[in-house]
Amino acid sequence: MMNRMMKPHLPKMLFLGLLFSFPLVAGAQENPEAAVKAARKYMQEAEAALADNDPATAEAYYRKAIAKDPANAEAKYNLGNLYYNKDITYQALERHRGAAATAEEKPLKHDAFHNQGNAYMKQKKYSEAVEAYKQSLRNNPKDDETRYNLALAKKMLEEEQKQGGGGDSKEKDQQDQQKQEDQKEQQDGEGEKEQNEDGKPDEKEGGDKKEDENKEGEQKKDKAGQPDDKEQKKQEQPKEGEQPKQPQQRPGQLSPQQVKNLLEAMGNEEKKVQERINAKKAKGVPVQTEKDW
């Protein structure tokens, strides 16, 4: 489990920080000494309010201290910790960023960046947390707590990337995918339209046309399953410029030559029968001899 402990800044260190910062801001304010003293007093009041478990009063005094001395990094840092403990993470980040920007001592910079990393982890912004912990370690490479939190942030970032990113990234991926699908459907529709304009029937039209042709073919057949004679003759008529085609023989129909041969065979058979009849006639009927009784 990540160590989410906010790094406290000891009141003694805060007091020393105020003393050290006095010469740096002396030329920037009209009465720097009075401003620093007032800010120090407000910070003491804030610490007393925290000891009495009164964070609201402590927050008000920290704000007054920052208003009196905008360069007071310690007041910003402690106010950031107060917001963090109240789960006001975005305010905590704002104050810790301000503390890191104005702090001049590395220990305070280190603590401010460390707590920025903790706030980012709370928001599940692992990439930002990694960068914050790295900045913290640049100001104090020996802090094992920061090093541990950095390793954990890297691990969480890796797991998030394996799962396709965080909520925002996942939603963006879904939008991109939907956009690609819409473009594909549009391209498919245009392709079908172009195909129809070129005169090529689509699958539905081809199916309807084929079905109509089948129905028409069925209507042109007689009850015996043969094509209608009228339709057959229509198909046999040659087109202009074409040679007349030989009529196709229907199934079971004799060709003209076969008819001729059959007639000749019948004629020959009839001739043979007639010859046999004539032969019998030539022999005649036996003549009876008249007897004289």
SSE topology string: HHHHHHHHHHHH
- Please describe the biggest sheet, giving its number of strands, its sense, and whether it closes into a barrel: none
How many angstroms does the end-to-end distance come to? 160 Å
Structural class by sheet pairing and helices: mainly alpha
Beta-strand residue percentage? under 5%
Unreliable stretches covering 5 or more consecutive residues: 10-29, 201-206, 220-224, 282-293
Our Rg estimate from Cα atoms comes to: 55 Å
Question: What is the CATH C-level name of the domain at 11-165?
Answer: Mainly Alpha
Assembly annotation: single chain
Query: Number of helical segments?
Result: 12
CATH structural fold name of the domain at 11-165: Serine Threonine Protein Phosphatase 5, Tetratricopeptide repeat
Q: Which CATH-level-2 architecture of the domain at 11-165?
A: Alpha Horseshoe
Mean pLDDT: 71
Q: CATH superfamily name of the domain at 11-165?
A: Tetratricopeptide repeat domain
Number of strands: 0
Q: What spatial form do the alpha-carbon principal axes imply?
A: rod-shaped
- Give the fraction of residues assigned to helices: over 70%
Biased composition (Basic and acidic residues): 159-243, 268-278
Biased composition (Low complexity): 244-253
Protein name: Tetratricopeptide repeat protein
TPR repeats: 110-143
